[in-house]
Amino acid sequence: MNFQVNPSSSQPIYRQLSQQIREGIAQGHLAPEDQLPSVRELSKLLVVNPNTIAKVYTELEREGVLTTRPGLGVFVTQPRIELTKAIRVQKLQESLDICLTSAVYLGFDADEVRQIVEARLGKYQWNLVKGKK
């Protein structure tokens, strides 16, 4: 996977990288058990502070997205859902409300939003998560 940072973005670099890793997994560019570059390698490649990369890896490990194997490196974990379906639906609706509110303020109508969403659905892996309740 090719990581990139945009230093002129209003989004902090650690969030840019966290989002890229999450999207990479969701879109199938990174698979469970894939090894990520070391903190030192990625910081050198992206010309960012190693503490920034360490922060990304630590945050994603705490969320269960990555795991560190001492002496081996950082790996993608198998996604697991430990929330009930009702809570997952609530979280998805909250996220959708934020996106749909933005769409309204950007001047899209419902049909345009449906077309855009439909076009984006094909970019993601929908059978990635195990352990649904």
UniProtKB/TrEMBL annotation:
Domain named HTH gntR-type: residues: 11-79
One Pfam family hit: GntR
InterPro entries noted in UniProt: Tscrpt_reg_HTH_GntR, WH-like_DNA-bd_sf, WH_DNA-bd_sf
Gene3D superfamilies from the UniProt entry: Winged helix-like DNA-binding domain superfamily/Winged helix DNA-binding domain
Assigned keywords, A-Z: DNA-binding, Transcription, Transcription regulation
Record-linked CDD domains: WHTH_GntR (cd07377)
A single MF term (Gene Ontology): DNA binding
Domain of life per record: Bacteria
Protein name according to UniProt: HTH-type transcriptional repressor YtrA
Encoding gene, per UniProt annotation: ytrA_2
